[in-house]
Design a protein that fits this description.
0% strand
Length: 284
Amino acid sequence: MSAARVARRTGAVLVALGAWQLLAQFRVNAWLRFSQFPTVAETAREFGRRLGGATYWQDLGESLSRIVGGFTLAAALGVAVGTAVARSPVAWDLLGPLLEVVRPIPAIALVPVAILLFPRNEQGIVFITFAAAFFPVLVATRHAVRAVPPVWEEAVRTMGGGRWRVLGSVVLPGALPGIFGGLSVGLGVSWICVISAEMISGEYGVGYRTWQDYTIVDYPGVFVGMATIGLLGWMTSTAVEVLGRRVTRWLPRTARVPGPHKAAGQDGARRGRRAAPTTIGETA
């Protein structure tokens, strides 16, 4: 990443933090009310204090274990079921109507169902996390598998490849970019739902602790919880993105389009000859 891009990103974060500090410090009350907001400095001090305690890390571990358990199960079943309903008319006839009826139900609305189904709150929270990620992965996989060009499959069959050979060497590799897009979306929804479930029925976890801080009017603690949730979501989403890039490293990466001044300078040099394709492995 270039120094200019690092500077832009750092500057944007610093501007946002500076605006937060000023609005909270001077208790600005206009259309929006900042009089009860903790300042950046107060939140940072509370963050540092909690990092030194065991409770913070226990909550962090509880939330991460719930995400890992629910999301891993959702990823495996979502890819399997999505591939099945995309490839098999029988599977679609049997599962499609039920899936389409259940899919619009928000995962957080399944909290009463989880309480009735599972004897422990922990199992119910993992179930809600699973339900939140399952349908984005399922839908993305279904569309990605159906979008694989039929000519790829025909080429493998022409060379004697069977159904499983086609599935392992053509369908799944060709659908991987779309599948990882669904995994990324599913992970984000999982974080939303696991935090909400912890607030409703959890005993430990970042969501539970954030809600407890709100009930005792510990606003710096609330913002520490929000910052923790944001950092956890960003790190896990980045991990999925990096894994996706490694798994699909055979894909060409399109070069960034040059600005107008660069395009104008290159126009004369490109006249009279065909421009070579520019595909490089640029990382964000």
